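Work Package 4 report. The design task specified in the project plan requires that, given a folded chain encoded as structure tokens, an amino acid be chosen for each position. We show below one input record used in the internal validation round.
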């Protein structure tokens, strides 16, 4: 059974307990050693328990095989699909676009440019539903930080496990920013947070003095009870342009919600000159949340 079958078949008859791959905290509790080395290993191979126990080359073979022998086979057989080629290519597209704002039309256009074949939006939406139902990906919806409501059809998709995502791309060197974002998203979900992509519009003057509407984005707006965080995730903010880009939405959000910048550096929690919290990825995952 896939997830929707369980909900339908056992409604009011059972307790649904969701199990995921190892969180980074669980992974590091097993491997020990250097947290900096561990996060790079986790970024590439993820936390599927059997993968953690294997050597690097065995990890690659195992994670690639999971898609073919378990995930895709279940999806194809369960949904009575005749072939897996379109499903396969769509999964690759989502893998390469982890953390990007997508909708069915954009994915369909990308598929058309790659395969030179047409795939309608309804089929794309159906296949994305299959991936979600098989616990391959989760979606983060856009949330208007000023209007306080979910907005638009665009979503960000994150893999349940970064190792599974990288297996789709044959373990080509992963985009560090994408993987960090995926790991932070998963960890927040593990810890019980509701997580959205933060978005809000501002009206600004262009070079010609005309008023233009600009959309600003915060990687995550995470809430759990009275806890609320804005979170920007970046591989590095030592470059002045990168730093300015990351803090710009915070400068425009004049509210009391805690504003975090998570970076892939072994730095302790500190405040910058604006009062924003800067913290290294491992401390964020192991201590902060």
């Amino acid at each position: 059974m896939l997830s929707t079958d369980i909900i339908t078949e056992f409604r009011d008859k059972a307790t649904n307990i969701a199990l995921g791959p190892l969180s980074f905290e669980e992974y590091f509790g097993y491997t020990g050693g250097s947290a900096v080395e561990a996060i790079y290993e986790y970024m590439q191979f993820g936390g599927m328990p059997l993968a953690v126990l294997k050597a690097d080359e065995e990890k690659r073979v195992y994670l690639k095989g999971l898609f073919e022998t378990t995930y895709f086979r279940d999806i194809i057989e369960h949904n009575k699909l005749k072939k897996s080629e379109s499903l396969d290519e769509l999964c690759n597209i989502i893998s390469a676009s982890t953390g990007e704002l997508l909708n069915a039309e954009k994915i369909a256009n990308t598929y058309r440019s790659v395969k030179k074949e047409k795939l309608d939006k309804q089929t794309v939406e159906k296949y994305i539903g299959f991936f979600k139902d098989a616990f391959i990906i989760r979606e983060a919806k856009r949330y208007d930080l000023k209007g306080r409501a979910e907005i638009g059809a665009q979503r960000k998709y994150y893999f349940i496990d970064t190792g599974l995502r990288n297996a789709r791309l044959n373990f080509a060197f992963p985009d560090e920013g994408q993987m960090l974002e995926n790991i932070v998203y998963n960890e927040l979900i593990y810890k019980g947070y509701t997580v959205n992509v933060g978005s809000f519009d501002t009206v600004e003057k262009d070079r010609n003095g005309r008023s233009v509407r600009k959309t600003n984005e915060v990687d995550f707006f995470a809430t759990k009870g009275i806890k609320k965080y804005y979170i920007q995730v970046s591989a590095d903010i030592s470059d002045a342009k990168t730093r300015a880009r990351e803090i710009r939405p915070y400068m425009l959000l004049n509210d009391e919600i805690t504003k975090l910048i998570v970076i892939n550096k072994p730095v302790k929690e500190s405040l910058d000159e604006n009062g924003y919290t800067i913290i290294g990825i491992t401390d964020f995952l192991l201590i902060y949340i």
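The chain has twelve helices and eight strands. Validation will be extended to a larger panel in the next phase.
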